[in-house]
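Quick one:
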Amino acid sequence: MTPASTSAATDTSAANKPASGQGAFAGPWRITFDTNPDDCNLRCIMCEDHSPYSSTQRDRRAAGLPKRRMDIGLIRRVIADAAGSGLREIIPSTMGEPLLYRHIDEIIDLCGEYGVKLNLTTNGTFPSRGARAWAERIVPVGSDVKISWNGATKATQERVMLGSNWERVVENVGTFVDVRDAHAAAGGNRCRVTFQLTFMETNQVELPDVVELAAQLGVDRVKGHHLWVHTPEMRGQSMRRSPEAVAGWNATVAAAYAAAERRRLPDGRRVLLEGIFPLDDADGGDIAQGGECPFLGQEAWVASDGRFNPCCAPDVLRKTLGDFGNLNEQSLRAIWQSAGYQDLRAGYMAKPLCQGCNMRRPQ
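Output:
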């Protein structure tokens, strides 16, 4: 499982945002398509769909529901609609493993056709083809490949990402980076490589060592977000659960920045750290007092059935933000400019989900 809806999948770094002064867009600069959320070859413990603690897949099977798999025609239409309106990147599913989507090659081809970049979150298994073949396919159009990474040791990585093989995924990262570096050295596109974590009790103390591992392997960035608690079994994993947990997290943050300073990438750069910041133990549920939503008016999400979503919050939660329409029935522009979406942009901090959102950042 690529735990990015639990994970964030999304990258809100300034390096990938529209440049200052470009003005308002008619549409989003990045779109995430939930291509195949029910397809995964791992069972990450924090995943809303594939965790052993989640009943989502069992419930769907019991109800006789088919697997959620997006029609490639919808993706073609939405990209065509948005391509002339500021679209710069697309992301295939951050729920499930996108490299299992049977139309992933066509998505890669659409990036080349429309001149947009592919921003990919994958669980590092590189199924079917292996890391080298996937890298050769992805790197020429890739802006960033975020590899879900949840430990600095075999024991922790495999405890969090059930079904993962530590030795194999470490080898895969090295192979992917080698292909990326060779392509860039030949004058081609340089695709950034990122380790993406979900911060939780099980792995947080290893974060500084993850930073050092990233530097060793040539991984440009380590980013992540705090755990979305989907099940009772995961409540004790949240680093926001108590003042003691917050204090432990804050000590880890300081150690992670020290590690980035101490252990550099081969070219001397520091590994970029994002989403790694101290918490206030009196935050009252607000992770970032005064922090703005990084998504509204900037990015869009499209569910497998075409439903427009305003952000990457877990699916059950983001439905509480409202019903904004379906892209099988309305154009992206119509939804983007609709009164309902504009009202959410103006008043989102009245929503309980937004008040406690893990994705906002301190100003």
